[in-house]
Design a protein that fits this description.
2 domains, 38% helix, 7 helices, alpha/beta, Glutaredoxin
Length: 195
């Protein structure tokens, strides 16, 4: 019925000599027709359709284990999963692009959350600069020289499905306790309070 209505509009526009309008309406009809297979997305079931997370295996989801990696920091130190966890402290990994949003997240964590959790190791992960020199320059320019920053070569991004603002909390045994975008920091604070 809707298609017939649009078809009628197309014919009226075409016969009225308004070719531009007819092209626009025809494009709209084709676009809507192409969306026909996606109508189920307009009526969500309300249930989580994702596959169940297999816990205690290497992965990126909560309940899974952080995989092994070896990366350099912006000051040339080498870090691996084992060196991060050797201190017996939980680790917060924050994926940064050094953009204003990342800056606000990092600043909020450093100034508002970290002081309440001195036994948690905070590490920024630069996943965009590509090399130590460029990452160090970005870190310096953003004013975070006092923070540990890992220069990701794609390893952590792939292993943790990390992107801008991704915040991953890893417990002392290597289990991933949280993997989500930073948002307000309230869930992060609540989680760190339980450790």
């Amino acid at each position: 019925m809707f298609f017939n209505y649009l078809s009628g509009l197309f014919n009226k526009a075409l016969f009225a000599g308004n070719y531009l309008r007819s092209i626009v309406i025809f494009s709209l009809v084709l676009s809507l027709w192409g969306c026909n297979e996606f109508t189920d997305d307009l009526n969500p079931s309300g249930s989580d359709q994702r596959a169940a997370v297999v816990e205690d295996v290497v992965g990126s989801e909560e309940g899974q284990i952080l995989g092994d990696f070896t990366l350099k920091s912006t000051v040339g130190n080498t870090y691996s999963k084992d060196t991060l966890l050797a201190a017996g402290q939980p680790v917060v990994l924050y994926f940064t692009m050094w953009c204003p949003i990342c800056d606000s997240h990092m600043s909020h964590y450093i100034n508002e959350i970290a002081p309440d959790f001195p036994n948690v190791h905070y590490i920024a992960v630069d996943f965009v600069s590509g090399n130590v020199d460029a990452a160090y320059y970005s870190q310096s320019d953003a004013g975070y020289l006092s923070e540990t920053v890992l220069v990701d070569d794609g390893t952590l991004k792939a292993a943790l499905q990390g992107s801008m603002g991704a915040t991953i909390v890893v417990d002392v045994d290597g289990s991933i306790l949280m993997n989500e975008d930073y948002k307000t920091g309230s869930r992060l604070r609540a989680l760190l309070s339980t450790l």
